[in-house]
Design a protein that fits this description.
There is one protein chain. The longest helix is centred in the last third of the chain and has 23 residues. Helix content is about 40%, strand content about 20%. The chain folds into three domains: about 220 residues, Spore Coat Polysaccharide Biosynthesis Protein SpsA, Chain A; about 90 residues, no CATH class; about 60 residues, no CATH class. By secondary structure, the protein is of the alpha/beta class. It contains 15 helices and 14 strands.
Length: about 400
């Protein structure tokens, strides 16, 4: 029996798999078993696994029908024998000291979960991006160094704690006690998994070293396809909501949860194909926890988070492709108006498709400008009027 079980889900990643396995095998902490779950790959991934398993007996191959990332991880957890569990996605890679440093941290502080910082590697730009505090653990101040803490202490930034499964080491006995699994059949599965355990432990710790390399903007990634699976964000938010609702700080953070998840859902809605938008909006209107009037005071939300409130209202009413196009036209019109006002000092040149409007500014006849979300117009120096034009809110959408 090995001390750490490293679970590597594998599905059609022949381009990246070797690098991933090389970094796992190169760990300075060597008492590990590497459970590679081949989730029905149809490319050369299975052959690569065979070659590596012949080189190192620590690699175990589990073959299964394609069931998705959650299914593969769950299959790995069921046969893991280690005292601790770690996950590594097969298109990513890890620092050679990752397991050693996380193991030292989790054992010395006697915690159930140890979390490290993450480098984002942009596949398109071929460069590392460390600008996101979510991955760099930037939300944790120095008071969290070298100590065990609970989720209650993270209340000010609870929803900014990285939920990803792979930058962590878990005590297996704790996961067994929680009887936790990844939700199968859903993408964006990390959030519900993390919330289901984070609220059940009082002992979590962090390692500030950058030990995990997360590959983003990868061709073939499900997050690049924006298909019907993006509907899953509604189910995932609902699952996270159920876990959060049972926590002792729910009332303190529920409106911040609304704000963040309204943005998350709207972002996925904007990305899905136009042919799927009606179905997405109908699912949201029928099932989303964010519409629960027994929990959320929407007059308060409208006052404190007007942008997110507007997004939810638009999405709730966007049950036709026509409503989506009307929204797109509104945005296009507002952008064009601002372009006219700020790119030409004396000539207004407005083009919509084949229609062109060209106006030469004459201050003695008319003047027009934008200020504080209103458009002001003066005619002949005497006739003055203005109207609401919320461009600043549009910019934040």
């Amino acid at each position: 029996m090995s001390l750490i079980s490293v679970i590597v889900p594998v599905y059609n990643v022949e381009k990246y798999l070797a690098k991933c396995l090389d970094t796992v095998l190169a760990q300075t902490f060597t008492d590990i078993e590497i459970i590679c779950v081949n989730d029905g790959s149809t490319d050369g991934s299975r052959k690569i696994l065979e070659e590596y398993s012949k080189k190192d007996s620590r690699i175990k191959i589990v073959d299964k029908e394609n069931g998705g990332l959650s299914s593969a991880r769950n299959a790995g957890m069921k046969i893991a024998t280690g005292e601790f569990i770690s996950f590594v996605d097969s298109d990513d890679w890890i620092d050679e000291t990752m397991l050693e440093k996380l193991h030292q941290n989790i054992t010395s502080l006697n915690t159930d979960i140890s979390i490290c910082a993450v480098h984002q590697f942009d596949e398109e730009k071929q460069e590392i991006d460390d600008s996101c505090e979510y991955f760099t653990l930037g939300y944790f101040d120095e008071s969290f160094n070298n100590k065990a803490f609970s989720y209650v202490e993270t209340k000010p930034f609870l929803l900014d704690v990285c939920v990803m499964a792979w930058n962590k080491l878990y005590r297996k006995s704790f996961l067994d006690e929680c009887r936790v699994e990844f939700p199968e059949g859903l993408v964006f599965e990390d959030g519900p998994f993390f919330f289901s355990i984070f609220f059940k432990t009082k002992r979590v710790s962090i390692v500030r070293d950058f030990l995990y390399y997360y590959r983003i903007n990868r061709s073939g990634s499900i997050l690049k396809k924006a298909g019907k699976q993006f509907f899953d964000i509604i189910d995932v938010v609902n699952l996270m909501y159920e876990h959060l609702k049972n926590s002792e700080i729910f009332e303190d953070v529920k409106y911040e949860f609304f704000r963040q998840k309204a943005n998350d859902i709207n972002y996925r809605y904007e990305l899905v194909d136009i042919s799927l938008k009606t179905a997405f909006a109908k699912k949201f209107k029928k099932e989303s926890c964010l519409l629960d009037e027994n929990v959320f005071d929407f007059s308060k939300i409208n006052k404190e988070f007007p942008i997110e409130y507007k997004k939810i209202c638009i999405l709730k009413s966007s049950t036709s492709i026509l409503s989506f196009y009307l929204r797109k036209i509104e945005k296009r019109f507002m952008y064009k108006i601002m372009q006219v006002l700020y790119t030409e000092e004396n000539i207004y040149y407005l083009k919509f498709w084949k229609l062109v409007i060209r106006l030469k500014k004459r201050a003695n006849i008319y003047d027009i400008w934008y200020e504080n979300d209103r458009i002001y117009v003066v005619l002949f120096g005497k006739i003055k009027f203005n109207f609401k034009f919320e461009y600043s809110k549009l910019e934040q959408n």
